[in-house]
């Protein structure tokens, strides 16, 4: 619908912008607490995560499988947002 209705496109753009801002804020807090890599930019990571999630949703519909979600989940939570290893 976003490509056919300017009104709908503006609404979607606003919603995605709000989601991105909220997620970036949470990622900033996690970075401050040392719960994710310090080198990871919260805004860029939020943008990547939302885009990846949208792609996973589309792939799940196309393949009628949860496999795309499983890959998304592993990549985001086991790799991208993996807490830094502390040296003793």
Which helices and strands occur, and which strands form pairs?
Blueprint: H1 6-32, H2 42-63, H3 67-80
Helix pairs in contact: 1-2, 2-3
Describe the protein:
This protein is flat. The model has no long low-confidence stretch (mean pLDDT 90). Helix 1 crosses helix 2 and helix 2 packs antiparallel against helix 3. It has one domain. The longest helix has 27 residues. The chain is built from 3 helices and no strands. It has 88 residues and is mainly alpha-helical. The protein starts with 5 loop residues before the first helix and ends in an 8-residue tail after the last helix.
Summed up:
The protein is mostly helical. The chain has one domain. It contains three helices and no strands.
The total number of structural domains is 1
Secondary structure tally, helices = 3
Q: What is the rounded Rg?
A: 16 Å
- The total of beta strands comes to 0
Task: Please indicate the percent range of residues in DSSP E strands (runs of 2 or more).
Answer: under 5%
Characterize the largest beta sheet: strand count, sense, and whether it forms a barrel.
Answer: none
